[in-house]
Amino acid sequence: MEQALQKICGKRVTTDPFECAPYAKDVAYIPGILVHLLTNPVPKAVVQPISAEEISSLIKWAKQGKIPVTVRGGGSTAYFNSVPMRSGLVIDTNRLQGFSKIELSQGSNRKMVWVKAGMTWKDLDDGLRQQGCAVCSSPSSAPSATIGGWVSMGGLGIGSVPYGPVHDQVMAIRGVTAAGEIVELSRPDKGPVKIQGSKELGLQFNDMMGTEGTRGIITEIKLLVRDVPEKEEHLLAVFNSETDTGSMMSWLGGENFISLYNVHFSSPELIMTLQEAGYAHEISQGKYSLEIDLEGKRNEVDKAVARIRNHVQVLGGTLLPDEVGEEEWADRFKSLRLKQTLPSLQAAEITLPVSNFAAFYEGLSKLGQKSKTLCVTYAHLVSSEMALVMVLYPSDELNTIRYIADLSFISQIYKLGQSFGGKPYVIGLWNTPYLGKVYDRGERERRRQRKQALDPQALLNPGKGYNPPSIILNSYVFGFGMIMIGFFRPLVLKILKGGKGR
Amino acid sequence: MKTIEELREQIAKTSYICGSCGSCRSVCPVYREIGWESSAPRRKLALAKEVFLKKKEQQVTDQYAQRLQECTLCGKCAEICAAGIKTREIWLNLREELRARGMEHPNLTQMVLQIKSTHNISTFSNEARLDWVEDLDEVEVEVSKAGSEVAYFVGCVSSFYPMSVGISQSIVSLLDRANVNYTVLGSEEWCCGFPLIASGNTQQVTELAKHNVKKVRALGVKTLITGCASCYHTWTHEYPTILKGNLGFEVLHATQYLAGLIRKRQLVPGNLDVTVTYHDPCDLGRNSGIYDEPRELLQAMEGLNFVEMPHHREMADCCGGGGNLAAVDKDLSQAIAVKRVREAVATGATILTSACQQCVQTLQMAARQEKLPLEVLDVTELLWRSLEE
């Protein structure tokens, strides 16, 4: 195997178990018993291609031997999105680096660049800023998340309010199909462009958006970029209740400020957790905070700031000194600092109508109180109507029984979210039982057909995004299991005196 | 030296906080060269958790030991860490553990023996510490002169390595020009111990620290200055801890002291019509928080066009010469340095400066290897040049 791969990638191949082992993990801790029951995650080989041609050869080679292929960027997701389900080959994209000269689109005068899939969002943004431009939006894990990775996921994050999901900023994609063909695909309104004999009904532009490397592998994208804004303002407003905070979020979404770039919510529990670790001392206990980031033309920003200041007052909130907002913005990629207080956490991430945010939060507080679970919540506004909400709660990865019992709380958060129009954000492996909550029956069937047409051997990232790959992850079996585990969870927490994690 | 239980406690405190997000990986100069996850800080921490917390120390493999020693201790992983983990201490303690297990890289073992025998990192006798003075025509350097205001701690690299003696010669020339009453320790100057700390031999630093502090105290100086970023970090961060108390005199990096002289107009820089950039040494910048004074010196020279590299101050890239990396893997160290000098050239600068003799040496070699049109100098060398011209 190694020799065959070396013929394609030279020394950028490893079958050494010491080197392959890290590719069997992502950011989430999952008890070994579950991992080994449901997956065989350690790849047989890892390769680091430097071109689409090499990836094409790798796919063709894997296809011959029916070897599963999992593509991996920063490995910064939490649902085994880029961890192999059935061992096989991992294509590590981190050597696909660099971006082209900034070009202007014909007609619309919009600026864009071709950027390779393995670059991180922060590196791209840093590089663009040297030339007076910037990315339109970025994930909150921008220092580690890669270009290809975020496009393959949900694509929501900082800057999504004005620019939408990253998928809206992608003008074209270069990639490799499950058959190993190299293709270049433009946005549908311009029609797909074939580079090499891609069959009709072959890989389409939308097949690459948010499909977690299950239909093709992204090697490069043509991305819209923006000019570095003339002015930035970062405000930190604090409120007394979730209702006032939710009203402010809805108002911000509804006002359609041209310069509104990002809105970030922190719950009192999150603030308290950060304060215990020595951060966020400017915020009084029990307050809800909203970081409001404005970027754009000077007069637009100034006008928006004046109106926001006024509305914060109307809702009984307070704006903290400017430097507090600026510091919060500077630390926007440091959300994991809460782990200094709560080292072992579990999490559920959902998209939710912002109009229901306050009600959801109230429901979550009740759920937390009832189950004696400290819920630490933060959220981003990702459009005028939607928020991306992250709920974290303490667990104990040193105690497998406790940890598995705590998994049931994720189901309860999803159920609560669903009652307010929310749904899980990404699928990966661990959210396959919730596919029915994310897509309706028709959409699920259409997705399955598309996968079957493009990757009939199911070689690309098998087990992710379509059908639960195990009876245990079947929605009914899993749902029943979670109810049962949830039933016993209070007892487990009581016996283990759990509640704050280790 | 920590006990294994203390080490386990420290690993527990850090490894469970780590979210494995990989921000550290993206900025780690070693990962950026090697490319495999095993070289990323997040993986090294995860392995520490797997091995030490599960009491499987016998599973510390040579591969893991090599990865732990392939680190420049640049601190960029801590700077960007999304969880706010201070990584330096854990890397150093893991190296201590490797040494205790006899898994130290043989070149580091050799270096430790060398320091023990000569009290410096070179093969020369410590009596030769002041050989660099012989090339100075107009400056008289006095050794262990009682009543001096300032003691200049030269550091091993710019005492013994011909490529670097220009730094010490420039510093004493500048002190002389500013009529500073200074002295040096000569053969009584011993290695500060930084290479021992970086190789996991902290307990051997105590003897060096005691000796150096005793000799400086005996001079009765108010201020100790050094041109070496690692010596500076050791004197300011390690010695007070090792000796459990205040040293009794102020310790400044040479750039801080010279900036003070310029502010007082005791030293007036000359003119230089060149474009210059500056490389923040990790031990002076990120690890000690000194960013402004070296830039102040550069900008004090009239005619000098100062340009920043894209990676500067807190986010400066490492030169590749830190953490004893060159002793463990010279090619890796050099590859990191090559990236840095290319970044410098891309700014349009013809001179790359730094404020660390090790950085200057490493970057000089990289610029020569790549045949780049780039001169690499210490800030103090450039400052002295401005006065000479």
Largest sheet of chain A: 8 strands, antiparallel
Q: CATH fold name of the largest domain in chain A, please? A: Vanillyl-alcohol Oxidase, Chain A, domain 3
> Structural class per helix/strand content of chain A?
alpha+beta
Question: What structural class do you assign from the helix and strand content of chain B?
Answer: alpha/beta
Please give the order of strands in the largest beta sheet of chain B.
2-1-3-4
Proportion of helical residues of chain A: 25-40%
Radius of gyration of chain A using CA atoms only? 23 Å
Rg over C-alpha atoms of chain B, rounded to the nearest angstrom: 21 Å
Q: Do you know the CATH topology of the largest domain in chain B?
A: Rossmann fold
Distinctive features:
heterodimer, A: 502 residues, alpha+beta, Uridine Diphospho-n-acetylenolpyruvylglucosamine Reductase, domain 2, Uridine Diphospho-n-acetylenolpyruvylglucosamine Reductase, domain 3, Vanillyl-alcohol Oxidase, Chain A, domain 3, 3 domains, 6-stranded antiparallel beta sheet, 35% helix, globular, B: 389 residues, alpha/beta, Fumarate Reductase Iron-sulfur Protein, Chain B, domain 2, Rossmann fold, 4-stranded parallel beta sheet, 8 strands
